[in-house]
Amino acid sequence: MRTGLYPGTFDPITLGHVDVIKRACKLVDKLVIGIAINRDKGPLFDLDERVAMVEAECAKMTDAFGTEIVAHPFENLLIDCAVDVGAEFIIRGLRAVADFEYEFQMVGMNRKLNADITTVFLMAEAEHQAIASKLVKEIARLGGDVSPFVTPAVHKALNEKYAR
Questions:
Q1: pTM score > 0.90 for this model?
Q2: Residues taking part in catalysis
Q3: What is the DSSP string of the chain?
Q4: Could you report the per-residue pLDDT of 93-128, keeping only the tens digit for each?
């Protein structure tokens, strides 16, 4: 069984994330969505909310692709999380050249820590490449329409967060 790990904070999950997940499902039998617990980032959605959003969005894909998809919170090194979940591959989404610079460094470090785990880069469709959770949150906070960037359920969750 080929297992991949797609890590991120998913605060919130966007259509760009969803597109990368769909692409990853074509490569692996099991996809673990690693939801980072990064206290330094100060997420808008707490861990339980992010896990619930990821699970809700991925439930549809499990049926469509036949890939087992599991949400897995983690707070340790990414490479250690990959070992913990039995991943052979780390799936990373790329949006732009600027992402590649950082990701290139990460791959080098992760290879030094564990050369048995391969990093695979996937790009979302062109219409989703500019989407970043940080920008989606900013648009929503300022009352803009984020419906082109997230699913209806996530759009609703963002509206509820910023209505408070």
A1: yes
A2: 17, 41, 95, 133
A3: --EEEEEE--TT--HHHHHHHHHHHTT-SEEEEEEE--GGG--SS-HHHHHHHHHHHHHHHHHHH--EEEEEEE-S-HHHHHHHHT-SEEEEEE-SHHHHHHHHHHHHHHHHH-TTSEEEEEE--GGGTT--HHHHHHHHHTT---TTTS-HHHHHHHHHHHH-
A4: 987 666 788 888 999 999 999 999 999 999 888 788
